[in-house]
Structure formats: C-alpha cells, structure tokens
Amino acid sequence: MTQTILLIALGCGPSDDTSQTTDSFDTATDTSVVDTGSNTGEVLLFSDDFDEFDASKWMVVDGEVGSTTIKSENISALDGELLLNVSRDAEADPPEWFGGAIESAGKNRFGVWEARIKAQGTSGTICSFFLRDEMALPQNDQPTDRYVLNQMGFQIFDDTIKIDSYAQWRREDGEDGSPTHEGFYFAPFEFDFGAWHTYRIEWDHFSITFYVDGERWADVLDVVPNDDLSVHLAHWSYADEANGGEPSLTEDSACLVDYVRGEGFLAGEASPPE
Questions:
Q1: What pTM value is reported for the model?
Q2: Residue 196 lies in a domain
Q3: Are 162 and 155 contacting, i.e. CB atoms less than 8 angstroms apart?
Q4: Is residue 274 part of a domain?
C-alpha cells in the first residue's frame, strides 16, 4: 500500500528566534529537570536496540514523506544504531530527494515512549520521532475514503525542534477537513542539535507530556488521541520554497537512532489503571 505521510512542516521552516513560541499550546509550568529514570509503564510494549534491522518489528514506509521519496537503500541497522539517510540525485531537474522512514508493525495505546536520536543537523532536513496512525472510517460497514489522521511527536530541524499533536479528518468528497492541532517551536540557544538526545512522550487518556533529555518541555491537553498508534521514525527533506528552500546538502545527511522503547498499557485499553 502506497501512502503519503504528512509530517506537519507546512509554511513554517526553522525559526531564527532563539526563544520559544507557542501556537494554541499549554507549556508546562514546571520546566525543571525531571529525573525520569527508567520507563514507568506497567507493560513492555515495544523495544529495539537496532543490533540489526528486525523486519518483524518494522515496516519500511512506502511512498513519500514531505518532498522526499522513501527508499529502502536509505535505511540500515548495524551494531546498535539505526541509520536513516537523506540523499539527492543532483543530476535530475529539478533535483530529486530520497530519505528513510519506518513504522512499527504493531500499534499501542497510551504509555511512555522514548527514543535516543542523533540528528546531523543539516539545513533543510528533518529527523522525526512520532506516534501515528491513519485510520479509515467505514460507514454502515462499507469501505469509504473517509479517514482520521492522528500523530504526536518531535521534528528535529538543524536549529529548531517542533513538538506537536495533530488530528485531521478527510471528508467523503476526498477533501481534507480542518485540522485540530496543538504545537509550537523551540529554538534553545545552547542546544547542540548534532549531539545525542533522548526524546520522550508520556501519553495517557487525558494528556501528552513531552521531554527532552529528562527535561519537561510541553504538555498537550486538548488534542489527545484515543486510538492505537504505531511508532514512526523518519529522516526527510522539505526541499521546497514554501518550507525554507533547498537544504544545503552536498553529501548524504544522517540521522541515527540508538534505541526505541515503549512501556505502558496493553493495546486497546481505554485508560491507565488506577
């Protein structure tokens, strides 16, 4: 099945501002460093240390992410690291961009999700860690083009991190309905975008809390999915004028993932236990 993934970066390339800005978003009032320790969920839902590419856990995304065509050759795992490359065919007119994206074979609802990621920080490329699902909405047990898209997570630019939770319906006529969205950008002044960082999502029935390196960055209270979601990891280019122009890419750009873990509650449970 071919799919086009919409990772929300439309009209909003990395900001030059070194302060954080909000867009219909409740920022966490406690910004002190939180000792998260090991994940605190009740059940181990998912874990991969990427000693090799495990096809029983992951599927290669078939299609496009942003303006990037996904190729299996741009995805590899060896010695405990997942490598997602962005490359281009400079001889094509216009240049063609290729990237790597995978999604977990299974889905889960609620819990604590964490990935340790090193983005190369190349201008015009994005390394992303999402929980996501695109679900068809049949009517009267009949197939339909109606669907709902849910996604939450991190987009790592070369000088900005975007955190958001997003939902959008597609109407029966095939047109996209108005999205429901909570999200904002961070441009921390002393943050090393080319270093290893731990990105963490804590998701329950009522809220989503986002952490970077154990520090609580943001809370989402209004756009909280109540569906089973898969894990998505992607490295892609937004090489078009609306999203910041072509990246300054003269060689392959790498995004490395050390591990992904998910702990929480069994798939399909309506809410965490007391």
A1: 0.77
A2: yes
A3: yes
A4: no
